[in-house]
Amino acid sequence: MGVLVQKFGGTSVATAERIYAAARRAIKAQQAGNQVVVVVSARGDTTDDLIAMAREICDHPPPREMDMLLATGEQISIALLAMAIHSLGGTAVSFTGAQVGIVTDSTHTKARIKSISTTRMREALATGSIVIVAGFQGIDEAGNITTLGRGGSDTTAVALAAVLKHESGDRHDVGCEIYTDVDGVYTTDPRLVPEAQKMEFISYDEMLELASAGAAVMHSRSIEFAKKYDVPVMVRSAFSDVEGTWIVREQEWMRGEPACGVAIVKDEARLLLDGVPDQPGVSHRVFSALAERNIVVDMIAQGLGSQGKAAIGFTVPKAELREALSVLHPLADSLGATVSAAEDVSKVSLVGAGMRTHTGVAERMFAALAGEKINMQMITTGDIKISVLVDRQDGMRALRAVHRAFGLHRERLKLPHGASREEVFRAPETSMNLENGRDLYRRLSSMEDILISDIRLVCDYGQITVLRLADVPGYCNRIFQGVAQAGINVDMIVQNLGAGGRADLSFSVPQHDLATARDCTERVIREIDPAARVVADSDIAVLFVFGVGMRTHTGVARKMFGALAERQINIRMINTSEVCFSVVVEQTRGQEALECLRRTFELTTNGNGPSSLH
Ligand code: ADP
Ligand code: ASP
Ligand code: MG
Questions:
Q1: For position 97, which CATH number holds?
Q2: CATH code (residue 525)
Q3: Using CA atoms, how far apart are residues 140 and 147, in angstroms rounded to an integer?
Q4: Residues 173 and 269 in one domain
């Protein structure tokens, strides 16, 4: 008999009628022969109302008490749903997170799941009951109620499916359905861009990047569980029987298009530390100070320094700006650097597994923005993602322009020609060796621990840096157009807006194209901004650290920068995403950096030598 985990979001249990609809779905799934576990969120705006209630009492409620309060929202839903199932003649038993054995760490309001006991759930399922679990909450080892962060019910659902699947040694079929107020995952938020298209399939990595780039349809941590424990998830409508979107392992055919979706985070804040010493250990000091306060640093743009000084630019959620500044001011003083912040910025990210193979993706994105005369304040790239930071007032226009430029308003390819849906579920993962991943996951002491799957060293890239480029819309685009016309494939891109309205732009290209790339860039620079300077560097090594949910684990950057700082290895360029961190170091230190990182992340598999990335 299979186990089906069904999750109903806030809107899907907002009224008595909808609770009955959810109850009917659960009963139907049970009658179809499944053991059913239902996870529910708080009804409608309950969580927001609870937060407002707390704020009426004080500005900064103690996090422990906040969790005590917030957890009540989900407790109401589980009881009501159990009652509805009983009135329909079914049997159901409701549990809070604590009762069902969801143990978390003690980081109140953003706790991570450590372990889940299935004993109580299994006992109840064995008696023929439908099990109803409160989403978004758990209990720490000291017995305090915790919550997982906004949107965390998705994570509860996928984590339950993951544990049920792996405890049965994969003997049982375990499914996971996320019922919400849209009928699937779209190329972008259909409420913002009505011409967005629904996808039939999306890969774990793509969904992870989209979710962490702002697509609130899934809590990004839930996708970490899905990928690590290989649980296919379907996102579908609570209000119809339409087939939704499957989030599954990545497969070759998904790379047919360069991009699968675009997302926006409207409220970001940009921080710039200018004039920091260009020395080993500086990034480590900055990012570990922020990680200690659990501030998730988002885009990081650290380019090549000049005259012994470097600028580190990064973004944080706008809501965390005040706290970030309180960490950064004393730090900047001690480094002899300056801090500046820009508040009204939005981040637009393009995501697609196709970026692993398609070329010219960045250029196409920048051309779309240049066409709209939108200035890019910062650019970062990841393995399958390109993010740009723009003025808040340009955010929506940027989102629409990029969406259109990649033809995302046109109907998607549903399945590869001749393939059946069953084949899609059976196909192996192509982005990460999941067998390897499964072995690794057994070593995790805690379910949500970071999983680093591979570290690679690539020595056949060179780096072009344009120093002090005037901050004018369209300039970056001109440069990348020039490079693309020469048929050169650009890999990492980092652009950081420095002081005085001038930006530093760095990108990597295959080493054998370095001289041509430099010539093209110089030619463009002479035309647009002769005051800027172009530097080409062939002595670089790029280290790629692959994993799952790397950005949301503030500790990864800290650990990585810390290990390199300890060896006095200077980081010259950084790029981060959920699935890959890359750093550029001096070529002579590449091998040493690789070994040091492998040791730090306890990776002993695979060879140690330089490899090619694709
Ligand atoms: P729930 O309460 O069910 O968890 P959420 O509000 O958290 O629902 O998530 C569903 C919402 O996510 C949709 O109403 C939609 O506006 C938004 N959304 C954002 N990006 C996307 C996307 N790419 N595809 C579908 N929905 C999206
Ligand atoms: N009720 C919580 C929230 O509103 C968790 C969730 O809905 O997933 O954030
Ligand atoms: Mg949600």
A1: 3.40.1160.10
A2: 3.30.2130.10
A3: 10
A4: no
Two structure tokens written together for 557: 């950057």
User: pLDDT, tens digit, for every residue of 439-466?
Assistant: 555 556 688 887 888 899 999 999 999 9
Percent of all residues in the chain with a pLDDT value above 90, rounded to a whole number: 64
In a domain, 523, yes or no: yes
How far is residue 158's CA from residue 608's CA, in Å, rounded to a whole number?
35
138-191 residue pLDDT tens:
999 999 999 999 999 999 999 999 999 887 766 668 999 999 999 999 999 999
Three-state secondary structure call for residue 573: strand
- Counting ligands in written order, the one closest to the CA of 39 is 2
Beta strands in 358-415 (DSSP E): 378-381, 385-391
What is the 109 CA–ligand 2 centroid distance (Å)? 11
Domain boundary among 117, 148, 177: 177
- Domain coverage including residue 298: 262-407+454-613
Q: Give the closest residue (by CA) to ligand 2 atom 8.
A: 151
Residue located via tokens 């200018």: 274
- The best mutation among 47, 75, 109, 178 to test binding of ligand 2, ranked by most ligand atoms within 8 Å of the C-beta, falls on 47
Q: Considering its fold, how many domains does the chain have in total?
A: 2
Task: For residue 179, report the distance from its CA to the centre of ligand 1, in Å.
Answer: 10
In a domain, 213, yes or no: no
8 lines ligand 2 (CB under 6 A): no
266 and 133 share a domain? no
Distance CA 447, CA 389 (A): 33
- Whether residue 200 lies inside any domain: the answer is no
Domain assignment of residue 423, yes or no? no
Q: CA 41 to CA 608: how far, in whole Å?
A: 46
- The answer to whether 296 and 374 have CB atoms below 8 angstroms apart is no
Say which ligand is closest to the CA of 178. Answer: 1
